[in-house]
Amino acid sequence: MFQEYGKLSTELYEHTKPVGYSIDGDLAYYLEQAKKANGKVLEAGVGTGRLLIPFIEQGIDMEGVDLSPFMLEKCQENLDSRDLHAPLYEQDIATLDLPHRYDLIMMPTGSFALLPTREIMMNGLKSFKKHLNPGGTLIVDLLLPKDFTVGDSSSSIYQLTPEEGILFNSTSLEIDWENQRTTEVHRYEKWRNGELVGTELSRFVLSWYGVEEFRLILDSLGFSNSRVVWDYEKETGQHETLTFFAEAN
């Protein structure tokens, strides 16, 4: 019934968040961290290359992994159109098996919150640790369920071309306080010259973790020197996004 990050959601993501688009300053902040790493970088949840491509253009030795074949296909198209190259892998981060080890693994802007269960989250962190060089750094963004109200619904229209557009609807379905996750249903409708030519339904689950809770999780898995910053260390931040740093031993 549901398809996560399918063809239409990828098309809308590329339209609203193209290569080089910064979400609340994440691009500049993560680029700074990648330069400090001074080594090989992996972006988990690379999507269509929004960050990957500008980083490569800045000389970062970077690779990407994603579970969505549609996202990766578009990412490869974006690389090819700029005559750039980066290894891309279609894998689940909970069971990563990549040929390289990295000095930095990053998962920016809430992508980590998309891991739907605690088991998958824990396995993902274990996979990250396995793929980090000794002393390598993990950086992940976490989100908190601010302003989530069950039953809220919103619709938007996005004009892709003079003939085509996507009607997007989001409905807030559930907040699960015990398991710490919210659920929305996203519906995508693609229209061409007044005719419906495609639909897609996605179950959008976001998980959240407390600061001390996540610090203890990292410690239990053998990470060290964990620390957290808010809103990419901006002075005018509103405590919307928290970013965890941790090191592999």
List the helices and strands and how they pair.
Layout: H1 7-16, H2 26-37, E1 41-44, H3 52-57, E2 62-66, H4 69-81, E3 88-90, E4 102-107, H5 118-130, E5 132-143, E6 153-159, E7 164-176, E8 181-192, E9 195-207, H6 211-220, E10 223-230, E11 241-248
Parallel strand pairs: 1-2, 1-4, 2-3, 4-5
Antiparallel strand pairs: 5-11, 6-7, 7-8, 8-9, 10-11
Structural notes for this entry:
- The structure is a single chain.
- The protein contains 6 helices and 11 strands.
- It folds into 2 domains: about 5-145 and about 210-249, Vaccinia Virus protein VP39 (Rossmann fold), CATH 3.40.50.150; about 150-205.
- The protein has helices at about 5-15, 25-35, 50-55, 70-80, 120-130, 210-220, and strands at about 40-45, 60-65, 90, 100-105, 130-145, 155-160, 165-175, 180-190, 195-205, 225-230, 240-249.
- The mean pLDDT is about 95.
- Strands 3-2-1-4-5-11-10 form a 7-stranded mixed beta sheet, sandwiched between helices. Strands 6-7-8-9 form a 4-stranded antiparallel beta sheet, covered by helices on one side.
- With about 250 residues, it is an alpha/beta fold.
- This is Methyltransferase domain-containing protein.
- Pfam families: Methyltransf_25.
- It comes from Vagococcus fessus.
